[in-house]
Amino acid sequence: MVIKKYIDDAVSLLRQIVAIPSCSFEEDEVAGFLCGYLEDAGLEVMRIGNNITSRLDFDASLPTLMLCAHIDTVKAADSYTFDPYNPPEAEDRILGLGSNDDGGSVVSMIATFLYFRDLKSAPVNLYLLLSCEEERSGKGGTTGLRETIAANADFAIVGEPTGMEANIAEKGLLVIDATAYGRSAHAARAEEGDNAIYTAIRDIETLRSFKFEKVSPLLGEVKLSVTGINAGTVHNVIPETCTFMVDIRPNECYTNEEIFNMLQACVKSTLKPRNLSNRSSATPAGHPLIRTAEALHIPTPTSATTSDWMRLPVPAIKMGPGDSHRSHKADEYILKSEISEGIEKYIEFISNISK
Question: What distance in Å separates the CA atoms of residue 38 and residue 225, rounded to the nearest whole number?
């Protein structure tokens, strides 16, 4: 069966969905468009909120592989040199917000799904999940679909821009909002107050120098970064509160609860986790997903970024077209050749998964 048609259709589809704004929690329009596209292609589709699912059952005795990619994007960076929703056309690439993260995986997985539908055969049953709210860990995305996923899939490929390498582990995500407290006073009488900014600075330095002793052979050290700070509204008042954000990328050696408790014990600021469930992930050793990647000589590195994988109740790998270094940056793009490679390698991987 000629694959070129599926590649051409995927490139065309990606241009169309890039033009539809779909920031996290604002995916209604793109979800409706993709539902219509899949239904027009002859698939039975179920929409759960702004998540889209479809099944291909070839043999009840076969396990089911889920193809999962997210349809939402981050907000466009201010430094775009073109309209992120109406980008210029280029001969070798598709430009625009979400083209690389995660539109390339979305359209490549759709093309792969349709390829096996038309082939009417595969060594596994297939389940397609196009998820929402991934970029902001929303409860309406895969977080709220654990039972649905567990009932429909035995294992999964999570589509993210990995250059079609099969990531077999990824760090988790723990975001903490911190508040340092002090006592307000006139700036001319600073000694009468207690500047919350200074407390925050001391705590930030404590966090910055904090050492996590356990190092994972797969995922390395826990990474911690302070990524935002805010205090004060006028020049002549000592601020009584100062807030800051902490981004932590855990390995599997610690639970998020353990990390949170360790950090709270060493700072004066009050810490509040946004979500404790975004755990690290690793494909079980010897799993068919790993064996298939190795048989096809696909590299199996680990990943520094997070994805829907951390919310899945089934074993998975992370693999998709594009380059993670382009994600969340201005002038985002994906190469047409990467879309082609993505579809071809997905088809090859699935065709060989039982071998």
Answer: 41
Say if residue 60's pLDDT is above 80.
Answer: yes
CATH of the domain at 146: 3.40.630.10
Q: Once rounded to an integer, what is the mean pLDDT over residues 49-68?
A: 97
Residues 6+ apart with CB under 8 A from 89: none
- State the residue range of the domain holding 218: 174-273
Asked if 17 and 153 sit in the same domain, the reply is yes
pLDDT above 60 for 287: yes
Residue 188: CATH number of its domain: 3.30.70.360
Per-residue model confidence as pLDDT tens digits over 12-23: 999 999 999 999
* Greatest Cα pair distance in the chain: 80
> Same structural domain for residues 75 and 93?
yes
318-350 burial by CB neighbour count: b if 16+ within 10 A, else e?
bbbbbbbebbbeeebbbbbebbbbbbbbbbebb
Q: How many CB atoms lie within 10 A of CB 117?
A: 18
- Report the percentage of the chain scoring pLDDT > 70: 99
- Identify residue 281 by its one-letter amino acid code: S
Is 65 found in the same domain as 119? yes
183 and 298 assigned to the same domain: no
Looking at the fold, whether 142 and 238 belong to one and the same domain comes out as no
User: Which residue type does 279 have?
Assistant: R
pLDDT in tens, 201-242: 999 999 999 999 999 988 999 999 999 999 999 999 999 999
Domain count, the chain: 2
- Whether residue 41 is found in the same domain as residue 157: yes
Q: Are residues 196 and 110 in the same domain?
A: no
Rounded to two decimals, the pTM is 0.87
DSSP for residue 328: T
Amino acid at 222: V
290 vs 79, 284, 301, CA distance in Å?
39, 8, 11
pLDDT in tens, 338-348: 999 999 999 99
Residue pair 63/126 in contact (Cβ under 8 Å)? The answer is no
Measured distance CA(143)–CA(308) in Å, rounded: 8
Measured between alpha carbons, how far is residue 40 from residues 110, 114, 318 in Å? 13, 12, 29
